[in-house]
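Forwarding these from the shared drive since the link keeps breaking.
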Amino acid sequence: MTTEPLRHLPDSLPRQRSSPDSPNGGDHLLFLAEALRTFHDTGALAPSGAELVNALVVPVTSRPNRPLSVLEVGAGTGVVTRRLARVLRPGDRLHVVEANPRFADRLREDPVLAARQPGVAVRLSACRVEELPEAASGESTTEGAAGSAAEGAAERYDVIVSGLPFTNFEPGQVRNILDLYLRLLVPGGELTYFSYLGTTTARTLASGPRRGARHRAVVRLLRRFEATYGLGERTVWRNLPPARAYLLRSPGGREEWGPPTRTSDTAGQRLGGEAPAPR
């Protein structure tokens, strides 16, 4: 595992013709190559589109008026990372976790991350989220960016944005990652992640009944997690493939996933979608 700061560079950077938050042709080719090589960990054939990215960064763009500590897990070629770098403010901290070494190398060279606002601290960990020191220790502070971590204690985050392809994993691994997210969030901290539509049927037809059953078990696990902690969800049709983004909130201190609780209609509106229906 390697963790390193991404330092601020001068603003004399190449002018980009396309949207600076969008992946360029090289990013698309790299993403496709890695998807074909390691689809289990990549989980898609193309980076997320702009509408899905906007839904995933809602906890930051609708932020409180204080510094934030943000963790992005599974950054890929950086389409969400670049959006975060543009909306974060001085005093904020962004910790990017990406296990794929080729994606991590691309992130180190990204000009948008280099040209972020002064005062925004960004660090990159080239590892799986389960391999972070705070995951192993199980210890963390109760402060995000507004507070300071005690010596020897791991940082907790105001926001976690997850790009991991959960339905490619075993149910036990997904459960462990979700529990880790809850431990890493400050009380009331928010989590976003997404899933692609129509994948259960496609997985069963393409991979057989055993993998289809594993896929359905992961989906049931996610639905139970969303029923307990969900604030809202949004279907993004203009994505390849279409996806659904989820917004969740950590209550702080609750270990077990209990029955669903009522949420206000305004929660779903933050994502531009709907509050979760009773399940």
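-- next protein --
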Amino acid sequence: MNIHFDWLAPIYDRVIGDHSIDLLKEALDLPPDGWLLDAGGGTGRVSARLLPFTGKVVISDWSKPMLKQAQAKGGLLLLNGRVECLPFPADCFDRILVVDALHHFPDQRGAIQDLARVLKPGGRLVIEEPDISLFTTKMIAWMEKITLMGSHF
């Protein structure tokens, strides 16, 4: 488990800032009564802003302090756990979102397999990751490496 996010949780949204949801809304094409899983969704900084456009939003994250921040936003269903072993039945989510989190999953292949398992047939999985070719992303990746965050860009 990566404890760095436990320490960052109280300031995460302020440090990272707002995330534009326009492209995500378009890519997800959220059904008004659908279920959205935000895998590795942390504080809910993205999915809380998508809540008005769909039925239910579930955030799965392994950091309890991050989920505590998400809880304060209201209206989100929270699950403390790993994305590689989700406790949901197969084919239960209409949409799945992974924003800036895949590189933090210890078992990326296992995570993708389990996300595919819980995604309904015809559903959408949208993954957004930082562009590692950019200088700022390279610096972030370097910082995460020297602080032993275990990221896999």
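The chain has one domain: 4-146. The chain has seven helices and five strands.

- D.
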